[in-house]
Amino acid sequence: MNEIPLWASESFWKKMAIWVTAGSFLILVVLTMDSLSKTSAGSERVPAYSVINKKIDYQYNKTSHKFMPVIGENELLFGKEFTDEEARQLVDLGKKTTQTKNCMNCHTLLGNGAYYAPDLTKAWLDKGWISKELREDMMVKFLMDPENNARTFGSNRKMPNLKITEQEAKGIIAFLKWMSSIDTNGFPYNFKTINAEE
Amino acid sequence: MNTNGLNKVMENTNAFCKKLLVCRNNFKTWVQLDSSNLSDGQQLSVKYFTVAVILFFAQILFGLLAATQFIYPSFLYEILDFSVNRMIHINAMIIWMLYGFIGCVYWFLEDESGTEIVGLKLGNIAFWVLTSAVTVVVLVYLLVQIGPGKDSSLWFINEGREYIEAPRWADIGIVVVMLIFFYNVVATFSKGKWSGIAGVLTLDLVALAGLYVAGMFYMTNITHEQYWWWWVIHLWVEATWEVLVGVIMAWSLMKLLGVRRKIIQTWLYIEVALMFGSGILGLGHHYFWIGTPEYWLTIGGFFSALEPIPLVAMVVHAVYDSGAHAFKNSNHPALAWIIAQAFGNFFGAGVWGFMHTLPQINMFTHGTQWSASHGHLAFFGAYATINIAFFYLAIQHWRGDVWMGGGSQNAWRWKWALGLLNGGVLGMTIALLIAGYEQSFIERAVEGSTWGGYFTAQNHPSFQSAMNWRLFFGGITFAGFILLVWDLLTIGKGETRKAPEIIES
Amino acid sequence: MIEPVALEDFFITFFSSALIILAGASYALLFAWSKVNPVISIKIAAYISYAVLILSVAELTRAAQFHGYWLIISLVMVIGYFFAPIGIWHLCVKTHTDDLTPTTEEKR
User: Fold this and answer.
1) Neighbours of C81 (CB within 10 A)
2) Within this chain, do residues A69 and A126 fall inside the same structural domain, yes or no?
3) Which of B21, B301, B461, B503 is the most buried (most CB within 10 A)?
């Protein structure tokens, strides 16, 4: 009764703590390398930035049993075909702008952020932009002057004017279009896109 | 003319400074704290605690502003927008808790190592550097707020990534300060003596500083960016912080209840194994929907089911110990806050976490007020409580180890502060839970997460009344905070009975 | 592969998940208490808690539409939450053996 068995000894648990931590961390590192390679821009799950030249939709896929992005024919953004490099630059400007304007502390991106304003994951595909013909123009105007083009949906919540330039606004739109093409394992569920028939 | 004006300004500043000095002296005579009761390291640690309390105040203040904007969206519109208030709300939280932890470590560093702190001067400089950096960052958040979409904005204004918004110059500063802190810990233990607690603490600080670096880079690819971002946030909050609290608790239990070192250290190792074993891969529950492969759904689900195991271990051990140790405690407020920690951690992290973490349901709760509900209870329950408990231990020692057990005068203050703070946070949690439930139902499931669906849910009467209740309970929390500060400054004043010394059993 | 929870099962999903943790903890608590204070009614209460846990796991398994390898998680919860408190109790006893504090038997 007075003998401490090995499995209850300090030295055993010291080793255990080290091995469990090191083992978990090693698994995490391996998974991280795998995940990063499977989600680099241009992979199956995260399309190349030049996807902004294409039509993007989001539909239920019966075989993989989840909602998935569907990339279609050419559908140019701002009436221009971007090269790979131009597309990357534009998306980069947009992504950077979403950070420097602190979008994430009102909105969520891929569901992460604050909950004061709607999710931006599929914002490009949202029915709130009424029709595909009006969408780009509406988005630019809204981003540059959200007060006078407010989209409050009866909530009185207005986006503040963040002094976004036209080029930055276009960048944000390219970024949003690209982001809507990421395979997010079916999140958000049951989302009806602007392409869907009423 | 010009020199005259300048002179006047100088005079005014002088008068102001004098007034400030008088105020400071009056305050000092009022609180009657005798710093000769503290060791050098402890004098540094109470500086950290002081700033921690001030930042705690900022957290609550900006939380209240943001909560008000949910009800009156035009309140401070385009002056201090929701994004600014919310950013300061969560940043102040992260930073005050870190200040608290650093303070705790400096508090017991000399005692645990058996020698004086090697780089005390450096530690003091680091404190002032960190505090001025935090001040500058907050001022820039308040006054500049946002910048153009350029790298320079990321470097000097705001990185725009929830929880770690601090601009890059501050990131580097934080890493430098953490390295100085790390040096102090390692060098002091090396000069004095190492122990199991010292070893765990050192390795944990390596992880803490190293992980922060993972979150310092800009990436165009948002999937990669959020991947690393969660490394920092999750592995800090659900792994390294937990272990840090374990270390602080281990030392406190040894000193407070006289538990033997061997037992304490064995259990610290057990906790580390359980927490890192479930927590590191528990990271998977943040990788469900950010573009990462499907295997994370399984990993995240599995390890989320395991994450309550350390909590079960604590329950069993607490019962065992309650039989083994007769509680003769001379610091009732500290003990009460440690009990609050046990419950808060269990409900906030355990129950609230598991309720919405499995991917089958997280599909609908992700990115709703569910997360806010869980976040409020879990952060408060797991980390605010333990810091407050330590503040009481520190103030007891600062007063010269006076009795703070049963029959103390003005005990109603700490009791009411405890009740109001816990009741306030619990009330906010439940209000946000109702809002989150409604949101996951209407916005997510029925309306398929469109913008229209989002606002339908936001405009729903149950959501709006939940937001009113949240603000109300935020006010309760604030009242509790005010009382807490008053109590911390006055408790033990005029108490003559000494606390009995506790000897290791 | 996952099957998202159906709308009508939202509440039961939240409820049963919360109940799993609560029942698991109260089983652990009562189990430990029955060791400190060996009264049969406490032991029975502990097993009732565990029964609640099994029912909650079963209900969650249905509501969250677990199938295939997801059933392993249900199994792990049922087995793990049963044995974890027992194992941890033994650890408590053994790590404290050369402690001055009384063991279970002495306490009686």
Assistant:
1) 25
2) yes
3) B301
Q: Is C94 on the interface with A (CB under 8 A)?
A: yes
Number of domains forming the structure of chain A: 2
**Same domain? A17 vs A104:** no
For residue A3, tell me if it sits in a domain. Answer: no
CB atoms within 10 A of CB B4: 8
Domain segments of chain C: what residues? 9-107
C71 touches B: beta carbon within 8 Å? no
- Is there a domain that residue A119 lies in? yes
Give the neighbours of chain C: at least 3 Cβ pairs within 8 Å.
A, B
Residue B3 structure tokens: 């020199």
* A78, A170 Cβ separation under 8 angstroms: yes
Model confidence at A198: pLDDT above 90: no
Which CATH number applies to B339-505? 1.20.210.10
Kind plus residue range of the DSSP H or E element containing B15: helix B2-31
Domain annotation covers residue A16: yes
What's the pLDDT score for residue C107?
A: 37
Nearest to C24 among B302, B308, B324 (CB): B308
Task: For B444-492, give the secondary structure using H, E and C.
Answer: HHHCCCCHHHHHHHHHCHHHHHHHHHHHHHHHHHHHHHHHHHHHHHHCC
- Residue A121 inside a domain? The answer is yes
- The amino acid at residue A112 is N
Which residues in chain C are contacts of B298 at CB distance < 8 A? 69-70
CATH number at residue A68: 1.10.760
Count of helices and strands (H, E) across chain B: 20, 0
The residue extents of the domains of chain B are 35-194, 339-505
| List of chain C residues whose C-beta atoms are within 8 Å of the C-beta of residue A8 | 90-91, 94-95, 97
Cβ <8 Å between A110 and B226: yes
For A115-125, give one letter per residue: b (16+ CB within 10 A) or e: bbbbbbbbbbb
In this predicted structure, the answer to whether residue C101 has a pLDDT above a threshold of 60 is: no
Which residue of C1, C76, C92 is in closest CB contact with B317? Answer: C92
Say whether B266 and A13 touch across the interface (CB within 8 A).
Answer: yes
CB atoms A38 and B292 under 8 Å: yes
Same domain, A28 and A55: no
In this structure, the answer to whether residues A92 and A167 fall within a common structural domain is: yes
First to last CA, chain B: 76
Q: Please indicate whether residue A65 or residue B380 has the higher confidence score (pLDDT).
A: B380
Output B134 or B5, whichever has higher pLDDT. Answer: B134
The string of pLDDT tens digits covering residues C8-58 is 999 999 999 999 999 999 999 999 999 988 999 999 999 999 999 999 999
Amino acid at B91: N
Chain A residues inside the 8 Å CB shell of B153: 96, 99-100
Structural domain of A18: 10-38
Each residue's pLDDT tens digit, B325-382:
555 678 899 989 999 999 999 999 999 999 999 999 999 999 999 999 999 999 999 9
pLDDT for the residue numbered B376? 97
Q: Using CA coordinates, name the residue in chain B closest to C28.
A: B316
- Local confidence band at B324 (pLDDT 50, 70, 90 cut-offs): low
Residues B199-227, mean pLDDT to the nearest whole number: 94
Q: What is the pLDDT of residue A197?
A: 64
Beta carbons of C10 and B263 less than 8 Å apart: no
User: Does residue C104 register a pLDDT over 50?
Assistant: no
Whether the model pTM is above 0.80: yes
